[in-house]
Design a protein that fits this description.
The protein is an alpha/beta fold. The protein contains 6 helices and 7 strands, in the order ααβαββαβαβαββ.
Length: about 200
């Protein structure tokens, strides 16, 4: 709790019933890029504790739907327009998502991060594996005009990841939301126009 002591965005999130500052990260990216709207069908990867899901649920409204995937349960009351799938994203790339839902989605949003070991090379490799898994799912589930939003870290693999995303999507914009800690190396890639 000490880490959250003077965290303005964490306190704001708590006041509105969101479990983390991640709610505001997505809200700020969406405000800049105008990604989400009423009626959209979304796939959220790495959805626990549920900050993004809470924002997405409001953004897409009752006519939209979110499929949220994580190995850990959400720490929010699951809204009516959300289907939670407890699964490992790395296994989903092998088994496919069809047992859970069929068809395409309008956007795939990934806030996936590895459990950090403190060993830079190991953490970088684990993160790269998660980004590749999320991209594989996005390629399978998005139409050509779909949106892929993915969390990245400025690691030794950063430029290689960016090059891979640029080869898969026509447009890539990097976003560092104000609510992201200044000390964090995280940055988000907004990808559009599946090649």
């Amino acid at each position: 709790m000490k880490r959250h002591g003077n965290d303005t965005y964490y306190k704001r999130a708590q006041r509105i019933g969101a479990p983390s500052r991640a709610y505001y990260k997505l809200a700020q990216i969406d405000h800049h890029q105008r990604l989400l709207h009423n009626g959209m069908k979304l796939l959220d990867l790495g959805s626990s504790p549920g900050g993004w899901v809470a924002y997405e649920s409001r953004a897409v409204g009752a006519s939209g739907h979110i499929f949220a995937v994580d190995t850990e349960q959400l720490r929010i009351d699951v809204p009516a327009n959300v289907t939670f799938i407890q699964a490992d994203v790395l296994q989903l790339t092998q088994t496919g998502l069809n047992p859970h839902f069929e068809g395409k989605v309008d956007a795939v949003l990934s806030d996936l991060a590895p459990k950090f070991s403190g060993i830079a090379s190991v953490d970088s490799a684990r993160h790269y594996e998660l980004v590749l898994a999320a991209e594989e799912i996005a390629r399978a589930k998005l139409d050509r005009d779909g949106i892929f939003l993915v969390k990245l870290f400025r690691s030794e693999d950063f430029q290689q990841i960016i090059a891979g995303l640029r080869s898969s999507f026509e447009k890539l914009i990097l976003e560092k939301p104000e609510s992201s800690r200044v000390t964090s190396s995280e940055i988000y890639a907004v990808c559009k126009g599946l090649r």
